[in-house]
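[Automated response] Your request has been received and processed.

Submitted sequence:
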Amino acid sequence: MSKNAFKIMEVCGTHTAAVFRSGIRELLPAGVRLVSGPGCPVCVTPPSYIADSIEIARTPGHVLLCFGDMMKVPSPDGTTLSDTMAAGADVHMIYSPFDALGLAEKNLNVEYTIAAVGFETTAPAYALLIEEAEARGLTNIRLLPALKSAVRAIEWICETGEDIDAFLCPGHVSVITGSAVYLPLAEKFGRPFVIAGFEARQLEAAVQSCIHGEPGVRNLYPEAVSETGNPKAKALLKTYFNLEDTVWRGLGVIPGSGYTLKKQYSHWLAGRVRPGVRVRIGAEPVTSETGHDTPPADIETGCDELPAGCRCGEVILGRIDPPECPMFGKACTPLRATGPCMVSSEGACGIWYRNGV
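Generated structure:
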């Protein structure tokens, strides 16, 4: 990839998929590149989190609930949740966090732990889940959170001096946050921040705005994104969560980027099964009733390593396109992925592979 190219980062994986469907990438003028960003929550979840999920699933009396795109993500030893389920552990795929409510009501002697992975879009749903579980008097639901701020990741990319000239801001996240959240970034870093929908005409207009527009924020998705965002969802985030330092796979620790449950809600956290790891809720380590440390987020030292040869970190920083990774389509495919970017439906490598690149 030429260092002289004008780079537009499509932060959201859904935008990456839509760009391929629309054929926009082939229509870009010379010297303009669309590159991927860290907009896939599964892709930036550390492998240690998968190891914790696996251990919970293997624990008698516990069931691990997760979404389908988590099933093939490898843990540090290469084991996946799919492997774990095939070996007899209790792993159930869900379509909504609220599926846990019915399961927990029917089986009060089983503890259901939800692999809570996502950005600003999904974090409010877990707050609502806690509210509803409390209203129903359920005590057998837990969260294993790896919730992150996509907006903070964009800011961090700018702060670290990555060679990005404009941002195609994540549409779904922007519905929650509103367009005004990008104003301080545009003022501080002097780049275009353009919000777009997912139709070809919307993406084409957004790309043109990135190329020809002045630094600032432009909302080209006004039918879904307002200036102030979703007030109820933002209130839930403020009520239930703090923002603390957390690990992004392939990127390292991004300060103030992890949504962690506030101390008064720490009893909803799953006990961490693996020994020797201490984490924080606020300023204090917390121990669950089972005697295990409870994780407010996935902040650990040394849990960020990618497998040898995997270049997922460079892909989600826009430094390379997926085919430039030596494992792409060879040692790493959707059926048996080496890196997480090949697994999720929002992962850049998987999207490029499925589109025949």
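Summary generated for your ticket: The two ends are 16 Å apart (CA to CA). Residues 273-303 have pLDDT under 50 and may be disordered.
If you did not submit this request, please reply to this message.
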